[in-house]
Predict the structure of Lipid A biosynthesis acyltransferase.
Amino acid sequence: MTKRRTRAPSPDPTALPRQDAIVWEQPFCWSFLCPRYWLVWFFVGILWLLAYLPHGVRRATAFALARLYQRVYPKRRRIVERNLEVCFPDQSAAQRRAWRDAHFQLQAYAVLDLGRLWFRSVAYLKRQTRVSDPDLFERLIHAGGVVLTGHGAGLEWIGHFFTMNMTGSAMYKPFGKNRLLNWLFERGRVRHGARVYPREQGLKPHLRHLRAGQGFFYIADEDLGLGDSVFAPLFGIEKATIPLAGKIAALGKAEIYPALGQLDMASGRYRLLLLPPVKIPTEGSTDAAEAINQALERLIRDDPPQYMWSLKLFKTATSDRADLYVS
């Protein structure tokens, strides 16, 4: 990875100091054209084609891929089933199976939609997106804030949508070991002006964006092991949670807006579910973790299949709990 420094226009009152305006960008390498990457380029071509084909084609392709994926990767299907079972024990088995199937269809469509995000115009992408609370969204755009989110089907899309409307930052995590995939995803994420920083850089650059009245796209549902995590319930199950959202907001002098991207399979359009700001304790405590998980749970319950249930949400277990994912 290389870093490039760019000078922010001085008349902009929200611009960061020059030494802080860092965009992380992996340069294009001619080695990306080697045969080892030809399969990746083939799929990029498929994504480009799908970006301009009708929604019905993408939907039919997503349904086929979802069925195939469940057959080829039964382990991932069982993770989804286990998560839904422990989080929604009061739902019928038939309802959970329907949610499972819808989950895989939504996730498959979202992958196919990388083409639209990478190749279609900003005007087009905005037309394909609606916001649950436009007034609240305007408030966030003008004042900035921490966007507290989780892994929904519309995560990539809504992340792009935020950067089309406001300046903000997000943490960057390399996408596997494939250098071309890293380049493609990074280029896609900074396409609309996002400031993307490697996780190793910590919170300092994001705090500076927040203090400048901008945004920080914060994914709060990852299980990163014990480390700095504390346990707090999510759907009644103790989950390892990083309790930093309140501290980030306090240091950045910003509010916290829970948000989740949702995909409408009937139309192929996306919805930004945006909730009013929440108060989260600033100390890294169980209370802070509980407030974070309560906000995430509210977002997820709005439309359960939208959430990425294929994650091992509860892989880090308390000492008195068995591994939920042992077959």
User: Anything to note?
Assistant: The first helix runs from residue 38 to 52. The first strand starts at residue 3 and ends at 5.
